[in-house]
Model the fold of this input.
Amino acid sequence: MVSLINTIDTGHEDIIHGAELDYYGLKLATCSTDGIIKIFDVKNGNQSLIRELKGHQGPVWQISWAHPKYGNLLASCSYDRKVIIWKEAGSDWIKIYEYNNHDSSVNSIAWAPYQYGLILACGSSDGSISILTCNTEFNTWECKKISNAHTIGCNAVSWCPSNVPDNMFESKTSSTRPPIMKRLTSGGCDNCIKIWKEENDRWIEENRLEGHSDWVRDVSWSSSIVIPKMQIASASQDRRVIIWSSDDFINWTSTILNTFDDVVWGVSWSLTSNILAVTGGDNKVSLWKTNVENQWICINEDASCASILT
Amino acid sequence: MAPESSKDQQTYQMRSSSRTIEHREIMATAMSVNFNGNWALLAGRRVLALQNLDENADSVVRKFSRNCKYEVSSAEFANCKQTQEFCAIATNQLIEVVTWGTSEPTLLHSLRSHTRMVTDIDWHCKEPMLLATCSIDSFTHLWDLRDARKPSMSLNAVCMSGATQVGFNRISGNLLAAAHDGDLRIWDIRKGSAPIHYITAHLARVHGINWSHRRESCLATASQDGTVKYFDVNNPRRAEKIITNSSPVWRARYTPIRNGLVTIIVPHLGRGENSLLLWSNSKQTDPICSFVGHTDVILDFAWRPNRYTNTELELVTWSRDQTLRLWKIDESLLNCCEPVSPDRDLVDDIGTESPPEDNIRIVCDDFQSSEVMEAINIARSPVMHIEPMARSLTDQPTCSLHHEFSLLNTNHPHFQIEDYDAIKRYAVVKVQAAGHIVNIQSKFPTEYPSPNIYPEFRFLSGTTLEDKNCRQFMAIMKRCALQRVKSSRTCFEPCLRILIASMKKTYITNGNDKSLLRLQSPRLEGALSSTLHDACIPFPRTSGVKFNAIGLFVTFAQNLNTRILSSKHSKLTPKALSAISGGLLGNVMGTQPVLYAHRESHHIQDRSNKSSRSKSIHKPITSPMVQIYDFKRLLHLNKEIANDFEIQKNDLVGTCKKSQMISEANGRSDLVPIWKLAELIASSCVPLEENCGELLFCNDPFKRNILESLILHFAVNGDIQTAVMLCAVFHKCCPEVETSPNKMPMGSPYHTVLPIDKFNAHISEQSLAMQLKQNRSNSWSDSLDLPDSLKTLHQDKEIFHCSLIKKSNFHLFNNFKTIYGDILFGWQMLNKRSEILKNMYFGKSSPSSGVEFAAECKTCGKLIKGPSCVSCKRSVMHCVICRLPVRGAANVCLVCGHGGHTKHLEHWFSVGFCSLFFVLNIFLTFTFYFRSTEFVLLGAVVNV
Done:
């Protein structure tokens, strides 16, 4: 069902913390404790290093590709409190923006759905979340900050997808359709998951989900494509992954996906939101899917991708 | 300090104790008074003693010997009547709950969960079975004695420092305060996931927390920094009141009745000064009364309720001078605590006249039977952090050897504590760094730590250092130790750290270990220097997962040996980055990259386990690998099918047949029956009669439902590709394709006709955007070429009536198509994408939710959104300046509605004309662009 199409030796001198493919699956970016970001060409099984981006003075925790509509843009966040946005210009990569307004390590970054524009959210250990908006016409960046979003620190941010299905009932005609509101979710050291929405140019806390008993390490928002339902997957130091679902942004119900053997720190939804990948301190990758009874089941038994390679 | 400053002008009373009971042999470190106030428990390492406090019962003391390795750090009687015989005694990590029967204390429960020394216990004041304990391990546990196997709740303060004090709120009982160094965490025990308040209370360690008996949200804290602060937890930013002393305050407790507060001050040099003071809560400048008599530090005190009257109290104190004293606090004293200014007339006769020192001496002589100084050396309380040696207590809180051991970092990657004993005063440590192993035995003199008294270090067998280096390192450690003990600070861990650092330095620069040299990098040294900071930064991920937008999946996993990083008690990966850089007590980043450093040390550990001392063998370090998986099949995405799939709107049956073949050829033979079914749905579209054919087709309930369930089935199961293909095929399909092939779009003369045709005029309420979408597409548009016989039918019906897809699903299916369109975009199949996306339904609402412009036609009065009225065939907008119809850019006033050519208006205002016939209050620039065939509308209703 799944085929391994490429294995890339990154050549980093230290542990890598993030790897992400661009939209087309042609380029791979990796980041590492050695402070370097590497970009590889992985088209058709290729694995040649295109570029090393040096600009951070500390471990780089995460990288993220923007939608190709805005060009080949890569954002990176680091322990050195900086967020850097890189752009491919011809054959070279240049630093187009550097954001220095956090007081501690920036742990997570996420690009907003491209429909909203070129917007980046950054979560930092200083407890705040920054929303950087690019005016693509003048190439200027504007920053809004949600200060004290999470006590002690914010560990993860994720945007609400823009394609949230409407309530499909006849009564709800298109004219009463609420305006699209930018929302994002974040998880932090206060064991909470918070949902933020932009209202009148300000980011306000819309909801707070409490269920984890330890730091939340990762959050990922997706919307089910079939029924009007949002889902947030959260991974925590308490070894659990919780799926939060709601159809109105107000009432959220939680389902514990699983309690793992070690802490969990990574969740990622597939594009159609029906498969969830989870990873954690034991370095295992497990893939989860709902079955017909709407229960979550693990589809790779020994927690390796090989078991579903068939 | 108030008592000092007021020596010349005595403003407070002096009281001496009403009774003194001496117990030299008990050596208790904790004291507690029971619910009724008739028994006091004195708990020590060897003896538990119950002293009867009733009058004329001095001799009644019951002693129970126990032999324990550790001192009792806290002992508390329960606060409720139901459990008044219960008593919790904390020794090291264990809490024992005992009950006092007629003879022996009976052990009821052993509460085990803390992993470091328990520092404080507090019973709930209303729930008889509930108690809270806190520990150096930074946890605060709540225990319900009905199930004492494990804590009923664990409050985990994300904190570098252990919890030193805990206290339940007395009024609601729901709040709980825990002290961590100078900070307070306020928890609501109904919600234990995170503290509800953080209070940065003091600059130094908080020694005492006490909740108010009267006001629910108020508490008082006593701290090493010499202050007592009153806080309202609802306003945690600022202390309400502050009492300032020059010496550390050990305890501050509200009086159970009235408005007072009693503090224990740890005086300079540990003895001699008055240290038990009563304060009024409304006056922080001077105490009300000083209780004199104890000759040494007071370890603890408790209230003894007077059962006969509610107006008086008794204070029970236990001091390191091994005496238990009782002090009467009568009504007159309590009256002084009231907000009304204290009545000087009530000042006791011993207070005002003679100098206070004399008074103390008199009192002391009265009650002190003998000098008790020799007892001090033995009474060594781990909680007190007070060393028997006479020295300043105001500098950094020092601690006993036991305390020092308990604070040793057990997670350090380079050293392991093999053995230690605080009683025999030695420790054996194995240090591994730079490929060498050093076994050190350290002996601590009894006077340690005090100036020039430092531990004696000895290298044991198994040490792999050369003699030359042994001497060198010994000298370094000695130097470090001397420096630390000079100011009476502990030195064990710093010595170990300096040893590791110098070992690394020596061997790495010597080039003995090239592998380490290769990894040497200063890049993290600066970055990771502040450990405290790193406590809040999550532990770095060593593995990751990420789906990409088109069904690829990236993953990586690097097996760090995080086990050695994690605490010995749990096998879990640590939480914070600080676990790497040295754990609880500070940071010693070497010169190596942080994560490889651990890989390195683990390697050495492995080697040494095999008792091989070879350091040349080195695990090859491979750089991290990233795997890319193709998940398309699991996600039911097939690029080939997407590429081959074509929609022929005029031949639905053919489309379905072709899809069958495509599916089969590309490994989705499971879809063959589906497309066969689709073919059936499409094929019976051929009507018997022209007129009712469409009705049959569109309104066939069976077909509609089966199609819908097919599409939803695939969507629910994540096969968005098939779902979208099905809805694209059946979206807006009309029987006319079969019935009137002569009116094929390509041959239609109306194909490129302007949007405003005679049919659309009748459905003018439909948004222009929708019309545009329809006409822009090259697909066959049903609304344009309908036979005359069906026109009337269509005038009443909406466009979706001629589709097999229910109106209610339009939005949902549009959503599917958008998602699928994004996937096709990622596959760079832009033509295929637009082929799918043109089958989208655009409802009445324009996608923009902003303001919409409309102009009123002068002749018919209808609201027209376009540039001209379709029925009157006249332009609706005329420029107010030139009076000509506006085509192109136009501006209008939102208030009066006047407007015209942008250029004209710009000129009008730039010249500075004052408007004569209209007032333009708010002039917003909304711009229309009218082109010959299409236009874009951007926003507000304007009446011209």
